[in-house]
Amino acid sequence: GGADLDLLVSTRVRQSPFWHRSIEEGAWQATTYNHMYHPRAYIDPEDGGLEAEYEMLVNDVALFDVAVERQIRVTGADAEDFVNYVITRDATEIETKRGKYAICCNQDGGILNDFILLRPEDDEFWFSIADSDLMQWLQGVAVGTDFEVEVDEIDVSPVQVQGPKS
What we know:
Layout: H1 19-24, E1 29-33, E2 36-41, H2 49-59, E3 62-65, E4 71-75, H3 79-86, E5 98-105, E6 111-121, E7 124-129, H4 134-143, E8 150-154, E9 159-162
Antiparallel strand pairs: 1-2, 3-9, 4-7, 4-8, 5-6, 6-7
């Protein structure tokens, strides 16, 4: 807090496909999240700033670039069994073309990430993750097992429309 500095936009951190539109629409504040730039503020403080943005969210409609919520895909013959092994809910209850809130914990019960778990196909799951390196953990868990799965990050960039008028 309080530092008078600019955020250096470089090739070391990825930009979402919507980054340029966020800048065009006046984004004046950003952070990094999942190794990507994440626009965080659009309305100037003298025009109401974050409070005005919150009012739009709860009373109107707001569009957010949430491409930073990276999609980690688990596919393969044992995808359902593997996902059941690493999450705290029953993946068999997630219908194809549906999603559910889920959590991954480490071996001591500490939360690694909470996410929306989508199931586009019977043998495919997408972890729409919060800020963490969950893919590396999932890949590490898969290494020493007999699960027939592939774990990778897919090039999907979500946007979010929220608010009562959405």
